[in-house]
Amino acid sequence: MANYDVIIIGSGPGGYVCAIRCAQLGLKTACVEGRETLGGTCLNVGCIPSKALLHASHMLHEAEHNFAKMGLKGKSPSVDWPQMLAYKDDVIGQNTKGIEFLFKKNKVDWLKGWGEIPEAGKVKVGDEVHEAKNIIIASGSEASNVPGADVTIDEKIVVTSTGALELGKVPKKMVVIGAGVIGLEMGSVYARLGAEVTVVEFLDAITPGMDAEVQKTFQRTLKKQGLKFVMGAAVNKVETLKTKAKVHYKIRKNDKEESIDADVVLVATGRRPYTDGLGLEALGIEMTKGGQIKTDDHWKTNVDGIYAIGDAIAGPMLAHKAEDEGMAVAEVIAGNHGHVNYNVIPGVIYTHPEVATVGATEESLKEQDHKYKVGKFSFMGNGRAKAVFAGDGFVKLIADAETDRILGCHIIGPAAGDLIHEVCVAMEFGASAQDLALTCHAHPTYSEAVREAALACGDGAIHA
Ligand code: FAD
Ligand code: NAI
Q: Tell me, what's the ipTM?
């Protein structure tokens, strides 16, 4: 048994970042993790492995589709699937070991095992009970099943993202249920590796909540890459045969029942908070209807000394949102000021092209009757993008009609996930579109497209 200032339960991006910041602020800190390795969903079965497979499959796509155009002739590479998985596992290992190193460097104790909270101020791991002035729950999330449908997930034929990251082989036919972030990222991976991928989506548009123009351009681009879509379809059953599955769905507009065969079915219909085994009910911790831990503005639950962050609480289920909450709650516990600006949390989809978004959409502003203006610039007018076959897509900057203050930005195009951050910084500083437009941007960069969109909010873009 040991006494700590802070014990964090869970070592995902919320938990491990929080632990490091607590230690840096001089608090005696431990982090409980039940997995074999640190880093949570993100490093082990989420952000990092999926990006490794996206990268490898994108390289293949480039070789197959663009190399010859640049005068790079020869046989296209073939896929050695076990080696691709080994590369992905190596990337995971480097990252999870990196967190272990950072814990040692910052003197954070890793309490190995599954933790529970028998009472405020105590955390039990195995047979050991540790004392902590403050407990932070960062227990993350898990994949949820298709709501209201008869689907048994076996992680072999019917898989979540976790199974999809380590399939025995590349399937011939894959059905993805849900056209959200996971479905489109993992669907892209397998489509590029040669699978016939069909995405079945409940709504009429992909990536719900995103800017409508981006949604349309994104879907069109993915279709060009070979993904098929069945839209407005509610999956009600997945039948598993020996080595195959049949996905049954109803077309919502006419109630027509249809089905589609698959070698592998990926269930990607959202995630839910994971709080099993923590003992929250006995502690009387208040939860939301959606199963999230309820917190106040300082991430405190209704029980003194117990806080919660990341996917286990409300808000977008994103690694960087969890990290920001982790750093902020550490500051609060150390007696400082902790702050997260929930209006400026970027969202990125790491397909090719990438999709990135921050702040208000036109649709959300119309609903609020907020007057705005739009500056849009196509990557077709960006020399660098054209040079690398990445002219499809655009930057759309939205600014207040009167004050010119930037309200949001939506990008589909090359390196969109990096470009979005200059807009995030601008928004944090309350900048206007003109501030961006007057900032010198190096040539030739993709970033020039952001500046051109800002110019388009005023007197007009130059290369449009
Ligand atoms: P988690 O990362 O889920 O970590 C929680 C940890 O707590 C787990 O390791 C778990 O084992 C541990 N734990 C739980 N209960 C206990 C207990 N009682 N005792 C001990 N340990 C416990 N987000 C992005 O921003 N960008 C991306 O590109 C991205 N890609 C993703 C791809 C996939 C396939 C998936 C599934 C998710 C992706 N996400 C991405 C989402 C991202 O992974 C999550 O938002 C993020 O991991 C949440 O962090 P967290 O710290 O709240 O929880
Ligand atoms: P999601 O919420 O992004 O998408 C789920 C999709 O499934 C929605 O389009 C929804 O309409 C659809 N759906 C729901 N029920 C259905 C049904 N019965 N039939 C057909 N379609 C149905 O969830 P997803 O993709 O599982 O991702 C979970 C979380 O992981 C997200 O919140 C996301 O933030 C995070 N994530 C983030 C990534 C990133 O930042 N790049 C990558 C992967 C995941």
A: 0.98
Q: Report d(CA 37, CA 16) in Å as an integer.
A: 12
Q: What pLDDT does residue 2 have?
A: 83
- What pLDDT does residue 194 have? 97
* CATH annotation of 158-269: 3.50.50.60
* Integer CA distances (angstroms), 207 to 215, 223, 417, 440, in order: 7, 14, 16, 33
Domain ranges of the chain: 3-143+272-333, 158-269, 347-456
Provide the pLDDT for residue 26: 98
Topology match between the domains 3-143+272-333 and 347-456: no
Distance 72 CA to ligand 1 centre (A): 40
Question: Is 443 an active-site residue?
Answer: yes
In the chain, the largest separation of any two C-alpha atoms, in whole Å, equals 69
Note the Cα 126 to chain centre separation in Å: 32
**CATH architecture for residues 3-143+272-333:** 3-Layer(bba) Sandwich (3.50)
**Res 242: pLDDT:** 87
Spans in the chain with pLDDT lower than 50: none
CATH number given to 347-456 = 3.30.390.30
Ligand 1, residues at Cβ distance < 6 Å: 9-15, 32-35, 40-42, 46-47, 50, 114-115, 138-141, 161, 182, 274, 277-278, 310-312, 317-320, 322, 350
**Degrees (nearest 5) of the Cα angle 385, 386, 390?**
55
pLDDT of residue 76: 84
Q: Which of 139, 186, 285 to mutate to test the pocket of ligand 1 (most atoms within 8 A of CB)?
A: 139
